[in-house]
Amino acid sequence: MANYTKRDEVAVIELNNPPVNALSFEVRSGLQNALKSAIDDQDVKCIVIHGKGKNFSAGADIKEFGAGTKQQKPWITDACRLADESSKPVVAAIAGTALGGGLEVALFCHYRIGTPSCRVGFPEVQIGILPGAGGTQRLPRLIGVNSSIDMITSGRHVMAEEAMKLGILDKIVTEDIIEEGVKFAKSVVGLDLAHRILKNRKIEAVSPKVFDDEISRVKKKYKGYIAPLFCLKAIQASVQLPYDASMEQELQLFQHLVGSNQAKAQQYAFFAERTSARWQLPTGANSQNASPLPVKTAGVIGAGTMGAGIALCLITSGIPTVLVEQDQKFLEKGIKTMEGDLRGSVALKKMTAEQAKKAMLILKPSVNFEDLHDVDLVIEAVYENLALKKEIFAKLDKICQPQTILCTNTSSLDIDMIAEATKRMDKVVGTHFFAPAYIMKLQENVYGKNTSAETVATVMALGRRIRKVPVLVGTCESFAANRMLHPYVTEALYLVEEGASPYEVDQVLEDFGMPMGMFRVSDLSGLDIGYKVRREAAKRQGIDLTLGTRFVNGERVCLLADVLVEKGRLGIKSGKGWYNYGSPGKKEAIPDPEVLDIIEEHCRKFGIKKQKISSQEILERMQLALINEGFRILEEGIVSKPEDIDVIWIYGFGWPKYMGGPMFYANEMKLKNVYRKICDFHQKYPFSIHWTPSKLLARLSETDLPISNWTSLINSNSKL
Ligand SMILES: CC(C)(COP(=O)(O)OP(=O)(O)OC[C@H]1O[C@@H](n2cnc3c(N)ncnc32)[C@H](O)[C@@H]1OP(=O)(O)O)[C@@H](O)C(=O)NCCC(=O)NCCSC(=O)CC(=O)CCCCCCCCCCCCC(=O)O
Ligand SMILES: NC(=O)C1=CN([C@@H]2O[C@H](COP(=O)(O)OP(=O)(O)OC[C@H]3O[C@@H](n4cnc5c(N)ncnc54)[C@H](O)[C@@H]3O)[C@@H](O)[C@H]2O)C=CC1
């Protein structure tokens, strides 16, 4: 709703819908009524609109866009039209965020003032829609077409200082926002308002080429997403048509998007991320009843690929960090990497040179573990070797304060075994970052059997603070993310043995929306890593793994990647892998006939008959294999809700948000179809354990319940 009060001759309208003042039906109606009262009241000379609490408004209530629900009138435009027509100045007083419809309300006002920390933006593209309450028409009239295209197609938040430069804000104020709003409104009473009404402003002439170029840019940058292209169409209408006609055009484009599958998936992803933040442990402890410990300083051990990236995340978030290496040479190498990454961020305008310099000032490089004596939390990122990690944790246990939390970035080792090396098993936890750690958003936090709720709360809070998306998972072989990757990768190799080329497989995945096909990703990570992992696992299990091995414990294996490794094809690092890169380190992936010959020879050797495999089969086998594993992970309680899995795939592996995530994708396919197809593959490929259908999937497929109901069903039926 909206509260209406008066301060002398100033009407103060407060948007009131905690926590973010989303513009629900009640708020829109309240705003419309309040504006009417203020305009009708002879004593009122000017009007201030502000938001109750920390935010002005986060825009339309996204839940109202849900399938089948119609936006009830008044819409934002109906509520705000009165401001346009008012002869009394209307001032938006912005604290916190004014996003989407929230900014649209502010653009109906004659003036906008904001606090130094306020942010404005049109993040609609991120939820698959466009600013449908005049945003695409009014912003270009205020800040010009080019800046509007940037803001609206990227969805980025603009800080107060930039908003002031662009002309979105008229003033930045430092005192109480309501007092300042009242003062400002009084100061503009009597001034001519004609030029302040945005719909009356002339729009600059722009050549159609600008839009042609932008369409190409957006298609490349936001590959597969339709909303940014619709935003461009709406902005182009603002240039080509009179205001009323282009508003009509904006509405039509909005209506098309709001009913699209992409919007449904992206809005699901928005709420999935927030649902995933609400973690819980099997003990019942959860994000509501556990409190994080403060992390004022941190330590990182190992300045290699991962450690350097993790340390960067910490220092660029303002956390003073001690970075410890085994010797000066490794330390210097890590610091060079960090400095290079910071230069990259500055070049991309993600931070200023000043901010980069400031970040490096709070890094303390060291080759002495004793320097970790006073830090609040340590993240270990040394080689993947259990004995080494145990040795380091035992050492840390002695050096660090009793309350210090000890985290490991292991990608596969047992958290409990590492914790056993300490006398503080409750304070040991996995914080599994993804490469490149400075860029990838996922932080897979892994609890062991003794990890306390306080420790979990601390690493979940730390994840948000360092701009990651943290997800909580339990311990199992490879944890949740990489465990799901296993059947996906395995199926890709089987497909290649059976007749698809690696390039066809990659094309199908990239057409689906994955940023890179599986084989290109393997080349990027290095084929030798999997090679070593497979050999070490085989050694542990007493298995003699050779290039001639076809079955292990009754399960089919395909060691084609190892054939490439033994021919010196390690991926990008050696200039050749599944693709040819010309020379080591080059990124352009060129399909290589030599690889096709290697595959041919491999198949001949094992008498494998090759056949034509359709794109649909490639996609189904790869996606359904990982989806089945996802249901098993859910069934075993490794994650507590399907949203966790979708967040992992979106932020860890680049699953396109417009496809919602693998669990959402399964939901859209209907579980009974998913289950039937998995059963068919199980029958056809009995030697692949990953096709054994998940019991949870079998049970859920009988119910036909949507994804939003799965968690309560799982929790209410322990037999699942
Ligand atoms: C605001 C934030 C930056 C705050 O972040 P933070 O503090 O980290 O808190 P969060 O955990 O993110 O959020 C707290 C809590 O709030 C919930 N929430 C946040 N924003 C919204 C929202 N906009 N709506 C609903 N709920 C919201 C969030 O989920 C959390 O709750 P929890 O899930 O229970 O934990 C951050 O939250 C943020 O970035 N928010 C999103 C901002 C955003 O995307 N805004 C744009 C919204 S869309 C919009 O404004 C659309 C428009 O421009 C105009 C619409 C025009 C309508 C025209 C009508 C025409 C109708 C035609 C017919 C249609 C036919 C049909 O309907 O079928
Ligand atoms: N590389 C990747 O893509 C990912 C790796 N991981 C995990 O992160 C950890 C680190 O992996 P990478 O960074 O790739 O390894 P890396 O080999 O690039 O770096 C390891 C660093 O640890 C240092 N180190 C070794 N022993 C040390 C000691 N006793 N004291 C201080 N420093 C020591 C080494 O000098 C080296 O710089 C491993 O557990 C790995 O499984 C997790 C996710 C992704």
From TrEMBL:
Annotated pathway: Lipid metabolism; fatty acid beta-oxidation
Organism of derivation: Potamilus streckersoni
Subunit structure: Monomer.
GO terms for cellular component: peroxisome
Domain of life: Eukaryota
Alphabetized InterPro entries for the sequence: 3-OHacyl-CoA_DH_NAD-bd, 3HC_DH_C, 6-PGluconate_DH-like_C_sf, ClpP/crotonase-like_dom_sf, Enoyl-CoA_hyd/isom_CS, Enoyl-CoA_hydra/iso, NAD(P)-bd_dom_sf
Gene3D superfamilies: 1.10.1040.50, 2-enoyl-CoA Hydratase, Chain A, domain 1, NAD(P)-binding Rossmann-like Domain
Classification via SUPFAM superfamilies: 6-phosphogluconate dehydrogenase C-terminal domain-like, ClpP/crotonase, NAD(P)-binding Rossmann-fold domains
Record has Ribonucleoprotein as a keyword: no
The protein, known as: Peroxisomal bifunctional enzyme
Location in or out of the cell: Peroxisome
Keywords: Fatty acid metabolism, Isomerase, Lipid metabolism, Lyase, Multifunctional enzyme, NAD, Oxidoreductase, Peroxisome
